[in-house]
Design a protein that fits this description.
The chain is about 40% helix and about 20% strand. It has helices at about 1-20, 20-25, 80-85, 125-140, 140-155, 170-180, 200-215, 235-250, 260-270, 275-280, 300-305, 315-320, 330-335, 355-370, 375-385, 385-390, 425-430, 460-484; strands at about 40-50, 60-70, 70-75, 85-90, 95-100, 100-105, 160-165, 185-190, 220-230, 255, 290-295, 310-315, 340, 410-415, 440-445, 445-450, 455.
Length: about 475
């Protein structure tokens, strides 16, 4: 598709683009790739513009990063970096914007295989009558392997380098992440009902403990965590027990919080408290928490989220599609709440496109407040990078391009016609760019996609396996419908 889109219009415009960028192209020295040079570092990534997303929001024209052993060791102009370092590999920077990899703070990756299986329904109808039964029937370790790999393919293609996942068979998710090279926080789901991999809350907590024991501290890119589903699928004692287990193991929790009016009403009816007040009352926020959605916090609850350093993950597409509501992101940011961005699962989105999340997050706040000044491009770009990293507890190691941080970096191609003209790079990243503009993706210093070519996932195999499994699901569903 990209090749088609680039077609003859690109050829037609190439003279114009080349002449526009002649100065930059000429200024780029040839790449140094002398593998025999023992002093050579692993990788140099160059770009017409480096958007660092550091605290000062520094932007470097004709810049480059030096990367060695998975870490960013220098950030500067391309001339400075090339004068100081030779590298075994260089990702050239002509018509490329270099920025931190995107952070998807809330996903159910394997649900790519349930994409489009049930649309246009309210959350509780969708969950109870379609998703939960389909999961019990179809989800096994093989489903999770194929679905997660399909999701990782889509996320890498779209420039996502880290995701926070919540699904079943977390060992299988971790094995896929290990192979494909992404970074992930992987939740062992805790839910008090029969699920694909457990019989109820107690069983899912004890299986989660096993998963966390197997992976904690074992892999630099994989963090095992707990994922209690919500306060309407677990009671207060079970939520407290999950937190206790997480505290004992020293891991964070990801959970759905205050997602829908149903949840808040359920909490009021059951506990005489709104959702966040309930969590606060049982000491749930005493450990690190990644709270997905938070669409309906009360005015009194927002300061609790800030004080407890809860990482809120905004999922605008899912919130719109399921009509869960519009999260008060503007108020939470003003109160100092840590806010990141996520896609939620592909069954309620229906893709894993963080560029779309950025754009919709901004537009949704603007139209809700009837104020175009709220949630400007740079703020929403931060939610997908540095702010998102802080929200998921990895602010010290990823989210910005700074010396000492892990090298999770993407190059975004700006040579497509839809980027002409470019007056403001940040504006284009948020309001113009899409998944197919991502050229190259690097995680922990390793190239996962190079100029659109996947290095760690066999695209044809994943598509074939996913199609075959989806065909089985479809035929079972059709058979059931015809028997009704
Ligand atoms: Zn979710």
């Amino acid at each position: 598709m990209k090749a088609i889109r680039h077609g003859f219009l690109t050829i037609f415009l190439s003279f114009f683009l080349l002449s526009c960028n002649a100065e930059q192209t000429d200024a780029t020295p040839p790449s140094s790739a002398d593998a025999s040079d023992s002093d050579a570092i692993d990788l140099i990534i160059a770009g017409d513009t480096i958007v660092t997303m550091n605290a000062d929001r520094d932007v470097i024209e004709r810049g480059a990063l030096a990367i060695d052993q998975g870490v960013i060791i220098a950030v500067g102009t391309a001339d400075e970096i090339r004068a100081k370092y030779s590298a075994r590999e260089t990702l050239e920077g002509g018509d490329r914007i270099v920025m931190p990899g995107l952070i998807n703070g809330h996903s159910h990756a394997a649900m790519t295989l349930l994409r489009g299986v049930a649309d246009d329904l309210a959350l509780m109808d969708w969950l109870n009558n379609y998703i939960f039964p389909a999961e019990v029937e179809f989800v096994d370790s093989e489903f999770v392997r194929i679905g997660t790999e399909l999701a990782c393919w889509e996320m890498i293609r779209g420039g996502t380098t880290t995701f926070v996942d919540m699904y079943y068979y977390p060992d299988t998710i971790a094995e896929v992440v290990e192979r494909c090279g992404m970074r992930a926080l992987i939740s062992a789901t805790v839910i008090d009902q029969r699920s694909p991999d457990a019989e109820g809350a107690t069983d899912s907590i004890s299986k989660g403990v096993g998963f966390i024991d197997r992976w904690k501290g074992r892999h630099p890119r994989i963090s095992p965590i707990f994922g209690p589903h919500a306060n309407y699928t677990l009671n207060a004692e079970q939520l407290a027990a999950t937190r206790e287990a997480a505290m004992e193991l020293g891991v964070p929790i990801s959970i759905h919080v205050s997602e829908s009016p149903f949840e808040v009403q359920y909490s009021k009816d059951t506990y005489c408290m709104t959702s966040i007040a309930l969590y606060e009352s049982i000491g749930f926020f005493e450990g690190p928490t990644i709270a997905a959605h938070v669409v309906w916090p009360t005015e009194d609850e927002i300061p609790i989220l800030a004080e407890r350093k809860v990482g809120v993950i905004h999922n605008p597409t899912s919130n719109m599609k399921i009509a869960s509501g519009i999260s008060p992101i503007t108020e939470m940011l003003a109160a100092g709440v840590r806010v990141g961005l996520g896609t939620d699962g592909a069954a309620s989105n229906n893709d894993l496109d963080m560029w779309e999340e950025m754009r919709l997050a901004s537009f949704l706040q603007k139209v809700d407040r009837m104020n175009p000044e709220v949630l400007p491009a740079i703020t929403v770009l931060s939610m997908a990078t540095s702010g998102g990293a802080t929200a998921i507890g990895l602010g010290d190691s990823i989210g910005s391009l700074e010396v000492g941080k892990r090298a999770d970096v993407i190059q975004v191609a700006f040579d497509d016609v839809h980027h002409v003209p470019t007056y403001d790079v940040v504006s284009h990243l948020v309001y113009v760019s899409d998944e197919q503009d991502v050229a190259s993706v690097v995680v922990d210093g390793r190239v996962l996609m190079r100029e659109g070519v996947m290095e760690t996932i066999d695209t044809a195999r994943v598509a074939r396996e996913a199609s075959a499994l989806a065909a089985q699901i479809q035929s079972t569903l059709e058979q059931r419908n015809s028997n009704r």
